[in-house]
Amino acid sequence: MVPDPECANRVAAAKAGSEEAWRFLIETHQGSLIRLAWTMTGDRELAAELAQETFVEAFVRIRQLRENGAFGAWLRTILVRAARRHFGRQKALPPRETEDRRTPEAEAIGGELRAAVDQALASLSPPCREAMAVAMAGGLSSAGAAALLGCSPEAYRVRLHKARRELRRLLADFLQE
Fold first, then answer.
1. What are the pLDDT digits (tens) for 47-92?
2. Which ranges constitute the DSSP H helices of the chain?
3. Are 148 and 80 in contact (CB under 8 A)?
4. Which domains, from first to last, does the chain contain?
């Protein structure tokens, strides 16, 4: 992903203590962080908590960020680690729950397909679900996603391939329509 110069400038301002820059960074990245956490955990309230925890940690550690343009990737790394800490596991998250997982986007899509996709995502193994969540969030190369998940690029691609293959199998009835 090509770094956004505006975001990099706001990160520099946030490092200097600008509250306006922090507001901009939160507004810019909050939605994508919540979606990533939600895809990983299947819990809307937990996703919001993890995003908030991520911003608090970023606020405390902002001066440790070396590349201002890498702020989004840095936030995603903090979020994945926070999710793993929450569940007390190093490499995998617990099975997703599919009940009561509606965001405004999901409610707009609605229907049987959404329920089938939720159920299919819930059935993925935690490593495959993590890989799919990172891929769905977008913006990272295979190497970047692998680094975020703490695995090799090859392992990331294998996990993502397995996740996609399983989703195609589980959603075959919808894909044929």
1. 899 999 999 999 999 999 998 888 988 999 899 888 888 876 534 4
2. 5-15, 19-41, 44-61, 71-87, 104-109, 111-123, 126-137, 142-149, 153-170, 172-175
3. yes
4. 1-90 (1.10.1740.10), 112-172 (1.10.10.10)
Provide CB contacts within 8 A for 48, sequence distance 6+: 34, 37
Structure-token match 């695995």, residue found: 151
In this structure, what DSSP letter does residue 142 have? Answer: H
Answer for the pair 80, 51: CB distance below 8 angstroms, yes or no: no
Q: Which of 140-145's residues contact partners 24+ apart within 8 Å by CB, and which partners?
A: 140/1, 140/73, 140/76, 141/1, 144/1, 144/73
User: Could you please report the per-residue DSSP string of 95-112?
Assistant: PPP-TT---HHHHHH-HH
Q: How far is 25 from 114, CA to CA, in rounded Å? A: 30
This model's pTM is above 0.90: no
CA angle 80-135-114, nearest 5°? 100
